[in-house]
Design a protein that fits this description.
By secondary structure, the chain is of the alpha+beta class. It is built from 4 helices and 4 strands, in the order βαββαβαα. It has one domain: Alpha-Beta Plaits (2-Layer Sandwich), CATH 3.30.70. Helix 1 packs antiparallel against helix 2.
Length: about 100
């Protein structure tokens, strides 16, 4: 089963530890404060316990959400490559690689 981890932690030091912990569990960094990847129930529970210790009494919120394969088939994504967004912001509508 896949797992989505999202967090909102104001303290840079604690946020970095959460980031590293998610990487230690083999999750893929998909957004600034979001990770995604396969974890079984036992590994998800281990991650939960470890992240609880990392957060401690510091301000913040961490959500660990299991997602079944059926629900993943319903996932929608909207993505604009960074390069295309930069081109558009500069008024350049040409296709192909961005070369300076």
């Amino acid at each position: 089963m896949k797992t989505l981890v999202v967090y909102d932690i104001p303290d840079d030091r604690v946020r970095t530890k959460v980031f590293e912990t998610c990487k230690d569990y083999g999750l893929t960094h998909i957004q600034y404060s979001a990770f995604f990847g396969p974890l079984n129930q036992n590994r998800r529970q281990e991650l939960y316990q470890r992240l609880r210790r990392v957060l401690g009494k510091n301000e913040g919120k961490i959500i660990i959400c299991p997602i079944c394969d059926k629900d993943l088939t319903l996932m929608l994504e909207i993505a604009v490559p960074e390069e295309a967004a930069l081109r558009e912001a500069e008024g350049d509508t040409r296709k192909g690689p961005l070369i300076y």
